[in-house]
Design goal:
heterodimer; A: 509 residues; alpha/beta; Rossmann fold; 3 domains; 6-stranded mixed sheet; 24 strands; B: 404 residues; two-stranded antiparallel ribbon; 17 helices; disordered C terminus
Chain lengths: 509, 404
Amino acid sequence: MTGDALAVELKGIEKRFPGVIANHDVNLKVRAGTIHAIVGENGAGKSTLMKTLYGMHQPEAGTIIVDGVQHVFRSPSDAIAAGIGMVHQHFMLADNFTVLENIILGAEPATRGVISFSTARTKIEALMDSSGTHVNLDAPTSDLGVGQRQRVEILKVLYRGARILILDEPTAVLVPQEVDELFSNLHRLVADGATIIFISHKLDEVLTVSDDITVIRAGTTVAEVKPDEVSRLQLAELMVGSELPSPHGRTSTVGTDVRLEVRNLSVAGPGDKRLLDDVSFVIREGEVLGVAGVEGNGQFELCEAILGQVHPIHGTVLIAGDDVTSTAPHFRLVNGLSYIPFDRHREGLLLDAPLWENTLLGRDADEKFLRGPFINAAATRADCREVIAAFDVRTPSEVVPAYALSGGNQQKLLVGRELSSHPRVLVAAHPTRGVDIGAQAAIWEKLRLARDQGLAVLLISADLEELIGLSDNIVVMFDGRINARLTPAEATPELLGTYMTGGLQEIAS
Amino acid sequence: MSTPEPSTMPLSTATEGIMNPGTNDSIWTRLVRPTSGQSVLITLASSVAAVFIAMIIAGLLLLVTGKNPIDAYGKMLHAGLTPVKLVEAMQRATPLIIAAVAVAIGFKMNLFNIGVEGQFLIGMFFAAVVGAKVHMAAPLHVTFVIIIAMIAGAAWSGIAAYLKVKKGVNEVIATIMLNSIALSVIDWLFTSYFRYQSSASLDVKSKPLPKTAWMPVLFTVTSKTGRSTQHQTLTSFVLIALLVVVLFWLVVYKSKFGFRLRASGYNAVAARTAGISSSRMIVVAMLMSGAVAGLAGLPYLLGESHAYGPSRPDGYGFNGIAVALLGRNHPAGIIAAAFLWGFLDSVSAPLQIAKLPQSIVLVLKAIILITVVIVNEVVGRRVAKRTADRTAAQLALPTAAVAA
């Protein structure tokens, strides 16, 4: 089948959401019988595009051609009928069912209303053999690990007769061995005639596994390349659209006063597991401490413990020398702590409220926004206009609801709000995640400026370039612990990658 | 490599930059919260349109049952648009305004206080029995009774707040249960301890409140049609109802506390991240809601009956929910909606006299509620989309830059 026959062709796809053009002028050609990778930054529009192809929403413009036939997908069932299947990033399995029941759910072979499990079993076993994807069909789904769940999802899709499989960031949740196994299964599927569309932003994987690569940047397809024609760096530059920011020589602004100190901090998890385990560090004025790590290795708990949202089972948190371990979150926030949360929509913004109420959130204890027990709307709105101007938030006015802004502008507003209270300590979790390049540069600049003026920053990021570029020191978190400490000069993506996956740091000689 | 714990990972809704307002909200949340960016005029127009649509649907129902809808609506307006009936509508609207404010306080932070019914009965009962035990000067006595009613209502809703904050019991479940418990508790207390047999009347009532605790009549209108003379009084408690609305507006929309309350309603996680204690807000909002609910029975107690009896009013709480929804939790909206409800109730009797089904009023109320909810949802979505599009257009951003 491998040849020039196209399994999927997308022409001029445009998809808009309120205030956002998520995809525009997207053109994609997927050759039949290949593994086709789609790469792009977070927020570049990869998932939106795949949802369009899978019929989960309808594009405003453009055509979808599958196996040479033009289609209009009104729902996923139309896409399934055309032979397309999708394995989502977040699995959708019923935990109280067995694997077999989950696979046939919604497509049960039945005679007169009675499910024929034996027919299903025979069919699934044949599929398992041909694809090399094996799972115990009688196991309860709740007992399965992440890798096995993914296999169930793949079987589910194959069971429905899909010949074109979309995998949305399939490796994000897998351990390295499982990744290898997944890739060998994918190769078998392709050899068997299937076509795979593989979404990722992990460049090494993409270069290893795919036959063709399409790069998406800022909502549109910008390049189509072959893995043997590009280097990792070239691919990264295609993704971000410019040369990568790099740690540039600068004089350290690290002072002597300790602004944030965390001593032996531990947070309990389910059972005996500790989500945060004996973490200690010190951040001085004008210092940025970067925290590298695969998401879910205790970074969230670290932030929650510093903010006072969870009670640590052990350890202390000191802000500017004062022990705040037993204080309420509000006390810490009004005493010099600011927080840029992991997820601006969930934790940071009141999407339906006007911008000026958003910039007031968390700062309403400040007398300048009050008149007695009442909000001084004029002063609050004036302050919001200042944030908008200082942080270059692109908005017609401060009365616009927050949902109307683009992600980058929402984030600039959020960063502006947090820095406007002149904090002494800033906990910044993924401050530039999912924002466009322009907003990213602006946010970095503001963070540098605040640091130069003495702000102590705890920077949690998955963007290694951001970590290396901004941090004075870097720690790596793995499984709730700090398992490596290094300087940005020592840190290479390879080295960080090793520590992030649990590699041990050699004691410096 | 460890696999991330799903429960500890923040949901990354921001990653693909989809700005679909309220996508994570429950349908319920979206019903009670007007979309920001929607002008008062649009909200008003859509509510009025919803009432008209409801009238058309109810008219079709009348038509099917062989009645002439135009005739029915004509009779309604004819009967209702008289001074006597309009004052009656306002009199009937008074408790509904109070009950709706109680409901709206909860709605503003996504708490559904379905227990206004029980809270108002508890408030009225304790106001009646405690108020009858004391002797004070007139203005003091009325104030005392009002405070007792508020404390009793707040105590009753406080049980639901405690259960929610400490035991994680959903307030809808708790308040529904508390409604029926309230009825039983009141019946038991009344029959066992507070029955007061007066020789003058066969009515079984609690001991009447001294005159010092009565609310005066604001005014009375009289109309003569042929041989019959109609009187309708308006109790001065309507002034307190309007004061409650003003306070509601000041506290919820203008104060720092109200901002925190609304912030918790908009996005509980963001409010918590900003240092606002959600349990504290739940307790305070629930107590405030219950205290206001406790007042809803007082127009009747202090203005008409002056004692508690089994012929007590009911349905204020449930109608209050309807009025709050119809009025979009807005102070002016609540007054208008309560008046509409009062108006419909007041024409119910004349309809019967005109040999038209009285239940058309109930049907009309129900259909109005449904259409208001649907129309607001549709309009809200359109407004959200238009606001976002207009914002993007005003900025005239190049398409590529918006995509992140």
